[in-house]
Amino acid sequence: MFASIVIIGFSLVLFLYWFRYTCLLILSTKTTRDYTVQVARANHLEFPAIVAHLRSEVAVDGMDTLHTSLGRDYRLLTTLLRSAAQFQVGGLSVEQRMLMIDYHVMKGWYAIARRFSQALYAQQALEEMADIVAHLANDMGERAAARS
């Protein structure tokens, strides 16, 4: 019984490590053409300004407004991606689904870090959330370019 619990716990830790590593690897890949700025401009998204703001000094009080803006951009992009996926055979890719899960994990981590920790961890969570939104915007741009 004890051995089973240890094996399950160890497997869970390895799975979480794999998941985080894979998400960070997906976010670090670069495509041949970057569509993020075009998609952001066409849909009035704020994440490029948020990314620039996060790279500079961020006041602790301003993080909540950045978080709210990122949430709005994320909801809009996921709605667009899901709508576009209905017209394609494959639907959403595994990478997109993993990044959507990672966004919610980072959202929870932001809430915890914002409440109980230093602003550094909350800022890192916001940066990863912004990277996820940028990646999804780039995917949206690639789909639009492939259709035309």
Short key terms for the protein model shown above:
single chain, 148 residues, mainly alpha, 6 helices
Number of domains: 1
Provide a count of the helices: 6
Structural class: mainly alpha
Radius of gyration: 17 Å
Spans where pLDDT lies below 50 across 5 or more residues: none
Q: Which range best describes the helical content: under 10%, 10-25%, 25-40%, 40-55%, 55-70% or over 70%?
A: over 70%
Instruction: Please give the oligomerization state of what you see.
Output: single chain
Q: Please indicate the percent range of residues in DSSP E strands (runs of 2 or more).
A: under 5%
**Mean pLDDT rating:** 88
| Number of E strands | 0
Main sheet attributes: strand count, strand direction, barrel closure? none
End-to-end separation? 58 Å
| Overall geometry | globular
Order of helices and strands: HHHHHH
Tell me about this structure.
- It is a single chain.
- The protein has 148 residues and is mostly helical.
- It has one domain (2-147).
- The protein contains six helices and no strands.
- The mean pLDDT is 88.
In short:
This protein has 148 residues and is mostly helical. It has helices at residues 2-28, 36-43, 47-55, 63-86, 94-116, 119-147.
What is the topology?
Layout: H1 2-28, H2 36-43, H3 47-55, H4 63-86, H5 94-116, H6 119-147
Helix pairs in contact: 1-5, 2-6, 3-6, 4-6, 5-6
